[in-house]
Amino acid sequence: MENNILGGLVIFVVVVTCLLLLDDISSPQELNVVHKKSEVEQVNVQTDLAIVNLNE
Q1: CA distance 51 to 54
Q2: What is the 3-state secondary structure (H, E, C) of the chain?
Q3: What is residue 4's predicted lDDT score, i.e. its pLDDT?
Q4: Residue from 30, 10, 29, 6 nearest 18 by CA
Q5: At 2, is the pLDDT very low, low, confident or very high (cuts 50, 70, 90)?
Q6: If 0-12 CB within 10 Å is exposed, 13-18 middle and 19+ buried, where does residue 44 land?
Q7: Can you tell me the distance from the alpha carbon of 22 to that of 13, in angstroms, rounded to the nearest whole number?
Q8: Which keywords label this protein (predicted)?
Q9: What is the pLDDT of residue 1?
Q10: Where does the pLDDT of residue 40 fall: very low under 50, low under 70, confident under 90, or very high at 90 and above?
Q11: 48 vs 3, 32, 45, 53, CA distance in Å?
C-alpha cells in the first residue's frame, strides 16, 4: 500500500512536469524585451560665487 502511494505520487509529479514543459515549448516566444540604459554622470560642482563690492 505504501509503495502504491509513493509510485502514484512520482507518476503525478512526472506528468505535471511534462505538461509544464510542453506548455513552455508550445507557447510563442515573446521578444518584447526593452533594455533601458541610463547613464549617471557625477559632477563635482564648485559653487563659484561672485562677490560684488559696492562703494557708495
Answers
A1: 10
A2: CHHHHHHHHHHHHHHHHHHHHHHHHHCCCCCCCCCCCCCCCCCCCCCCCCCCCCCC
A3: 87
A4: 10
A5: low
A6: exposed
A7: 14
A8: Membrane, Transmembrane, Transmembrane helix
A9: 61
A10: confident
A11: 83, 48, 9, 16
What is the per-residue pLDDT for 22? 92
DSSP 29: P
Burial class (CB in 10 A: 0-12, 13-18, 19+), 33: exposed
For residue 24, which amino acid is it? D
pTM of the model: 0.47
Written as nine digits, the cell of 49 is 560665487
pLDDT recorded at residue 56: 61
Residue type, 6: L
